[in-house]
What does this fold into?
Amino acid sequence: MFALALLLGLSMAGLGAWLAALGGSWYYLLAGIGLVLAGLAGVSRRPQIGLPVLGFVLVGTLIWSLWEIAGKNWLPAWPIDLAARIGVIAGLFLLALLVFAMGRQGPDRRAARVGALVGTAGVLAAAAVLVTLGWERPGEPATASGAGADEQVSDTDWTAFGGSPEATRYVAASQITPANVSTLTEAWRFHTGDEQPNDRVFYAGQNTPLKIGDTLFHCSPGNKVFALDPASGEERWRFDPQVDPRAMESMFSAACRAVSYWQEPQATDAPCERRVFVAAADGRLFGLDAGAGAACPTFGDAGIVDLTQGMGLNEPGHASSNSGPAVVGDLVIVGQQVSDNQRRDAPSGVVRAYDARSGALVWAWDAKRTDRPREPLEPGEVWPQGTPNVWNVISGDTELGLVLLGTGNAGNDHWGGNRDPEDDLYSSAVVAVDLETGETLWAFRTVLEDRFDYDIGAQPVVTDLAVEGETRRVVVQGTKTGSIFVLDAQTGEPLRPVELRPAPQGALPGETLSPVQPQSVFYPNYSGVPGANPETIDASHAFGISPIDAALCRIEYHRMRYEGIYTPPTDEGLGTLLFPGTIGGMNWGGLAVDPGRAIAITNHSRLPNRVEMIASDEFDEPPIGDGGRRPDQDVAPQYGAPYGVDRPMWLSPLGVPCIAPPWGFLAATDLETGEMIWSQPLGTGYDMGPLGLPTFLRYAMGTPNIGGGVVTASGLLFIAAAQDDFLRAFETQTGRLLWSGRLPAGGQASAMSYVHEGRQYVAITATGHGQLQTTQGDALVVYALP
It folds into this structure.
């Protein structure tokens, strides 16, 4: 044990000297020296000296750890932070103590052995108590019963990704209640058979099924569509667009978040009077007969609209609609993701609206063609290149005649020195366009001159809200920067206070930055630990599961530029610490809004990135379109900019986040008062851990999360999203965990609920997420009461 202490001490002392030279904590240097002295004494057969020194280092480490943890206001998962700081040293001390006591001779040997065993048992008991404090366990069922399981309830449909075009993710069903949800069981399971085709394509299921009448419509990452019986999961038909895997290599993740549905006002069982639309990764939009799954011959060209027309594409999948089309009124509206950070002259971010009957183009919205949305392209003309895209799900309000777009960035995320004014005007913005004409009605920018990849991932939500005693039609928008903005749906005017806060400056040569950034101040900020303002971290937040990787993370912290949120990109040192990172804050899972209770449920990640700008003459990475492929790139080339970018998650050498947990939260906000009702970590390390190995511990430390929840009329929230394989049910008003169901794979999708033939079901896609390294699968799992 003393030899191990000596080796650990030498490593800590060396890293500690480096850290101290960077202006960081002296703890690692001092503790390393102490461990070296203890180790030398022990290996010199003087354990009576080495053991007290080792104990002194342990006590000092404990005091230092508690002091730093207290300085961070005792974050919800602080026992994990404490255990990681003292665990290795405590283990060395206890083992050395046991070896010393067991080998001791003389009349007091029995007392020494008993003392060592008692001390060890005490430490283990204390550790068990700390773990118990954060152990995830369902609470007691609520006393209010609501509707009973045998009560007749009206059937409900789920007609769009967010439940409806308004995207509240709310279902008016109350058969499953806080009182009976603990008895929820799996009703059926369906396997698509769609598996990741090769190690160059990263699948991420992410689908939220639709339930229309007596059919459930589901799609898989390979854009296969399935029609299922809502009560049994029996397959009625399937459609396979036969997407070439190469088209999916250009995507960060191959996904099919949604299909969409449309029907004639007086629809019969005649072919194609009811239609399902799916957008394939290779740029084809299919119109399918909802009853049989066959292509509708009157839609487009034999059932297909070619989305690559006018795009100037020279690489399949460079631009594709992984969020799926949206149906608003009689229009099928398609946005698209454009592979990030490849080139300034990337395919256009144009949003196109097609007639649901004929497939004819009705209008097209592009940041550089807002003055002529109904004007078609001239022969040989292409849509403007590199404009902000809409990669998330599109919302709408047929009563107001609105389509709501949450935009991303122009061609390159982290360099904007050559952007045009229109690019910045419509980047990271909520844009309302006229449903019939595509004309821009208003735009609200959530980030000014975005150089951070803080595009809008969450779907805009349309709902009614009491504002100063008056019911208003509003758009609720969550952002990666943690703000919740509430805007007047007709004018885009903020109905809750928004302040322009000073932002860090110091741009790269030729770059421009906004001196201020908007922040919603009426609601809590959900970019990190929930609070009034975006969380700012320091070196004490650095984390590792051993002193070595913790010290390395601290060294990296001091070698990066970080001045809080909106710290601009840099090419110096190790780059910029981007916090919140590229996945947020709030991402595409969005918000779930209970309109009756005026509660918004949000889930968000707390995981930084390290963003390093690399001069273009220092690497040779061709972009997509010039022979480059994402799986082969060490640097995203940002062709057309003077810098490429490398932006990995900030992880330790053991694959653990370099920031202390929680790494993900779930929270409830009162939209009328602005108060946070509750918040708590979301997710455990049960299926994940160091080096990707599961811990099998259901400790609620919070994990990065992708996906969203559904709220029910009975006061329940169902959500998976976290990096462990569980679907959970929480009480909406209290946040109490009431139930969890084990999934066969990662649930990085948004849950939904529906009532069919008087029985309420809850459904979640469980296919995992290749990039988040969660359990892979191909299942749709559906639950109901017994």
